[in-house]
Amino acid sequence: MFVEAIERVSEFTRPIHIITRLYHQSDILPGAATMFFVNESGYAITCRHVAEIIVNAAAVQQNYNQFAAESRKYLRDPQQRLHQKRLEQKYGMSLGTIITQKMDFINCFDSLTHIDVIYHQKYDLALLHFRTDGKSYYGRPAEFLADGQPIKPGKTLCRSGYPFAEFNNFRYNADLDDIEWTGAVSHITPSFPIDGIVTRFIGDETGQAYAIEMSTPGLVGQSGGPLFDTKGTVYGMQQSTRHLHLGFDRVNRDVWLGTQRAKVSNHPFLHVGVCISVDIIKNFLRQHGVKFYQVK
Q: Pseudo-torsion of CA 144, 148, 152, 157, nearest 10°?
């Protein structure tokens, strides 16, 4: 049903690869997010919570660099541990604190000179403007559902994004005390589509419907990916997942697990997707004078 639509959407949808280093931990955590391009001039949209990672990365790195620089002053000091604890408190360092995050925008441009970010004033939505003097590698931009076209419960739609961080082209550089990309793997990353039906519409405190609820969950990493129909027309953007308690709880129920009898408890939830609606997205783009396309 969505074969041709997924191919169409793949022309303008791109993964964001993220690597994260935590304080006092040696592992590098890979992650992913999604964005999609709305015109030929390097404008894309994603979730605000994704864009905040991009914006905050420099400040996070600077904070750690200052902490590390001050810590080195006391390496041979008899009171080194005391100074270390004082500096950890000063710079907010504790086990699990993020100290470095780096992004790679896959198959988008030859090179980037700057990224401008604009947050939606209310919703989990952000506009990215990639400035580059090189070649771009995305195809036709997104086409949105036309103004005035209704979206009704029961409509089958699909989301596409990059929920699984299946890349390993990164490493820790001990000489620099930093994490870095190695460029060791291809920039081809497979998307993961998931379909469902429109169930309900979600309103804000004023009663305005700003989001579309879907019968299936959006997956971690699909945030910022498009919601689209069988023609590839964009109806919205995946933003989050709601976890609805079903009330079918079972507590200490006797069951057989293979050849062993056991007591188990189960508290089931229904996981449904939340997508920022197409009207919110288009109004946001109009507000900032960004060109976009609608189906005719």
A: -10
List, for the chain, all residue ranges whose pLDDT scores fall below the cut of 70. Answer: 184-188
Structure tokens at 194: 């998931």
Helix axes 80-91, 48-72, angle to 10 degrees: 160
Residue with tokens 């030859």: 110
pLDDT at 189: 74
Type of residue numbered 266: N
**Dihedral angle computed from the Cα positions of residues 287, 7, 133 and 48, in that order, rounded to the nearest 10 degrees:** 40
What's the pTM value of the predicted model, to 2 decimals? 0.90
User: Quick one: three-class SS letters along the chain?
Assistant: CCHHHHHHHCCCEEEEEEEEEECCCCCEEEEEEEEEECCCCCEEEECHHHHHHHHHHHHHHHHHHHHHHHHHCCCCCCCHHHHHHHHHHHHCCCCCCEEEEEEEECCCECCCCEEEEEECCCCCCEEEEEECCCCECCCCCCEECCCCCCCCCCCEEEEEECCCCCCCCEEEECCCCEEEECCCCCCCCCCEEEEEEEEEEEECCCCCEEEEEECCCCCCCCCCCEEECCCCCEEEEEEEEEEEECCCCEEEEEEEECCEEEEEEECCEEEEEEEEEHHHHHHHHHHCCCCCEECC
